[in-house]
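Issue: ligand-bound run for adenosine-5'-triphosphate - logging full I/O for the record.

Environment: standard queue, default settings, no custom constraints.

Inputs:
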Amino acid sequence: MTTLSGADPGASAPVDTAPEDTWRGVATEELSESELSGLGSEVGARMRARSRRLLRSLLRPQRRRVVLAAVLVVVSELAFLAGPLIVAYAIDTAVPALARGDGRPLVLSTIGYLAAGVLNAVTKAGFVRVSARAAQAVLLDLRGRVFDHSQALSLSFHERYTSGRVISRMTSDLDTLNELTSEGLDGLISGVLTVLGISVTLLVLDLPLGLIALASFLPIALLTRWFQRRSRSIYRRTRTAIAALIVQFTETMNGLRAVLSFRREQRNLEIFRRSNAENCEANGDGLVVLAHYAPSVRMVGNLSLAAVMVVGAVQVVHGSVEIGVLAAFLLYVRRMYDPLDELAMFYNAYQSAGAALEKLSGLLEEVPSVPEPTDPVPAPELRGRVTFEAVEFGYHPSVPVLPRLDLEIQAGQTVAVVGATGAGKSTLAKLVARFYDPTAGRVLLDGIAVDRLAGADLRRAVVMVTQESFLFSGSVADNIALGRPSATRAEIEHAADAIGAGPFIRQLPDGFDTDVRKRGGRLSAGQRQLVAFARAFLADPAVLILDEATASLDIPSERAVQQALRTVLRGRTAVIIAHRLSTVSIADRVLVMDHGRVTEDGSPAELVRGTGAYARLHDAWRDSLV
Ligand SMILES: Nc1ncnc2c1ncn2[C@@H]1O[C@H](COP(=O)(O)OP(=O)(O)OP(=O)(O)O)[C@@H](O)[C@H]1O
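Outputs:
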């Protein structure tokens, strides 16, 4: 299987001693460096291999641009390297020729020098252009993959992972990659080529002097190794810290009403300050390491230049090296350390981007816990018979929420589910909608296991309306049309009228075209629920689940909706989860749940006549109305 990250989970993987769930996907994201190393070196190797696979899969479609960029940069570097050679020629050949009265070599070397400069500039510009295009295409692809994959992951993943962390992957991690590709890549390629080209030229020009100049590579390699070790853990810390900061910020902004009502500002500020300080500290540590590395590289470069100058001068005096060659040598050595500086900067950006890539590839490695069936059963017309067959379920393996449930709901039946808070009512509904898969047993729709139905078929057949009716930015009509995007305006208005939402919508400033603003902020909670009902009615599903869906309505609106519900529910299966018993009156059948089990099952009239929990609940409710 090839995942979205381009990863082949089984391919040439090292053998791990750590169990898979400790390192796969995002499992290592929040671990400290010591916890991570405690998992064993294979885990680190796996994570790096995963990042490389992702990078390869991103670069593959850009092959042509990468090849073109490589050709341009090679030509550009050759032109760049020609400069000091021409200077050497000018000093050693053209100047003596001029002294003899022959100006041609000087004219030739001047034209050559200028031509090399122009060629270098033109090809360099071309390279920057082509490589920037390739980098942007890679980022476009990656951003799309992250968004697509995050949407495809199951609810249980997002409950663990929080939207703030997804946002941080989408923003700060991708920005880091952007910085690397837009600023660092160009420096890397030209830097590597310059260093290689100059090294070869130096050795060819004068072997002993060349070896002296290149001896500096040993301390630079040691310095780089030190920098690499230190910065990797620091950049991991910065990625985690910035994610924590964004999580804290998004949570505060999303729950601003609760924050204000419970006066949590001070507490939130303290938590935010802690994350902010950790982020600053991690970034500061990164800068300190860089501040040691980059000047040290430069220092080594200067020492090397001094050594070449002293040894070269002695050789010139002895006549074993010409003065022009020494001048070229010094120019080359100087030029070699400029890109080394750039390489240090690139390495810095690379370490940071490497940490980001590690997290992004982890997210992309996650697989939905509710996967699409590989060979879905065709289901053009579902009628809505729901069966629970020995279903067991828990959000965490050790905490069973539904210990074992056997249940049959006939097509077209309206079933009310009541019971104490936490009894498992919503869980039952979420299993029908396949937000989760049972840990044992099967949930069936018209005799077909819901995990064998294509996601699109299941979504068409089962619609769930919950208490927090989510509206997207856009008009009221757009939000209703979400139920069936192909619906005409007349059908949208008909759906709104059928559930009694038409009158209030028409009174809005632009009627059905009124913008509901972010998350439906312009409408009251009850109005949002009415819009959600209209959306569900338009979707025309075989099974409609109402989870506390009338809880935000006032009594007159609820009555109106109950009238409408009789119309809405006709001809389809309905599961109504309700605390208010008024809603239950329209049901054919009532299920009373307690600790994940159905303890009573019958028509409302039957259960009221009995002595069970429902009868007691009903008596208490009737007394409260008096
Ligand atoms: N996403 C979740 N992750 C972990 N545990 C959960 C999750 N959702 C519900 N639970 C737990 O599962 C149990 C059943 O919850 P469920 O929401 O099904 O109850 P309910 O009967 O619908 O309650 P209510 O009437 O309050 O809505 C509860 O103990 C709850 O704490």
